[in-house]
Amino acid sequence: MTTPPDDCLARNEWICGAYLRTRRHILLDAVLQHLQLVTASVVIGLLVAVPLAVLARRMRRAAAPVLGVTTVLYTIPSLAMFSLLLPLYGLSATLVVTGLALYSLTLLVRNILAGLRAVPEETRQAALGMGYGPIRLLLTVELPLALPAAMAGLRIATVSSVSLVTVGAVVGFGGLGNLIYAGMNTYFKAQVLTASVLCVLIAVAADVLLLAVQRLATPWARARSR
Amino acid sequence: MRTLGDTWDWLTDPAHWAGDDGIGHRLQQHLVLTAVCLLVSCLIALPVALVLGHLGKGGALAVNLSNVGRAVPTFAVLVLLLLTPIGAWGDGPTVVALVLFAVPPLLTNAYVGMREVDPDVVRAARGMGMTGRQMLLHVELPLSLPMVLGGVRIAAVQLVATATIAALAGGGGLGRIITAGFNLASTPQVVAGAVLVAAFALAVEGIFEVVERLASRRAGGRR
Lengths: 226, 223
What we know:
The structure holds two protein chains of two kinds.
Chain A: H1 8-11, H2 17-22, H3 24-58, H4 60-75, H5 78-84, H6 86-89, H7 93-117, H8 121-129, H9 134-164, H10 176-186, H11 189-217, H12 219-225
Helix pairs in contact in A: 3-4, 3-7, 3-9, 3-10, 4-7, 7-9, 8-9, 9-11, 10-11
Chain B: H1 2-12, H2 23-55, H3 59-71, H4 74-83, H5 92-115, H6 119-127, H7 132-165, H8 175-183, H9 187-222
Helix pairs in contact in B: 1-9, 2-5, 2-7, 3-5, 4-5, 5-7, 6-7, 7-9, 8-9
């Protein structure tokens, strides 16, 4: 008869190398699902937020309802948001992505609008005087100048989404949250700690990556601060 | 559309309002938990933020704490605490996790509010011979009150939202109606719970909106 192994898994320790070795594939799958959910939701949020912010900037009357509705959406707790969408999507990844995209929307619309509003009137007038049409003005002058504020919103939205995905575990699509949820029910300490730490690492990595993108995309901001 | 009708039926069934698992008791748990955590977080964060803001020190700490807070999943902290010895004291993990998440916005807003007080006003107060304590309480605090209140509002709404997640880890409160609904595979119950939580969060947001308007009207009248 073989004796049961006396390793950190059997002793249920918080930090466990054997866990990392044996569950590598589970962890990798969870990280991938986590990244997919966050990326999809932030990209969708961005695709909806830019036109909304431009609309709110161009039409004064649209600003209050756009900001009001997105703020109300942000107030709804994540567990409630996922549950409210349940009749629409059932237990699916779409549900989690939609919920997170709605949260990103608030942060993105607010920041993009603030950025657009901060474009100096003289700059706009100068572009108009040079014969720029409204679309060219928007694409080549206003949006690039709004980029730093928009990127700040994007960073907050991404970091928040990385942590909120975990709540998606309630419908089975929570990325690393699934492992935390399962670990909670079985008192599996190594799994809970490892998944939690990975969540934070993803959030920090995403933030640093977006900061680098921002610096590359706005070379004029660096030149000015020098 | 059928779900809407079923949800309404679930919500208006008196049997779902009574008892330990009923809406009434869950609402009360949610309210008490949120209020206690808000009070504890304010008692911890506000004195520290006001003193740091008055001295003009620790700004990086106040701002970075807030960013770190956003990156750490509440749910993960809750479960981690649950598996430590704290997990043995009933609502202990929930309270600790909630306070941890309410402190950063309180700290950041109060600190920023204190730093944004017009330096000329502070210098004038010092010139009039005010002590540091007098300046803090009678000049800086009243002027930074809108920002401080803004932080309390963010913290309160965040607490209502996060208290919901506590139900995933077996805690009480309104989230429990949602998780119980998931376990029973009862969509009407899940949606009814979500509607209740969302309404509660929006109500808290609304109450703070009114309080802030009243406070700013009073501040405006004094000028």
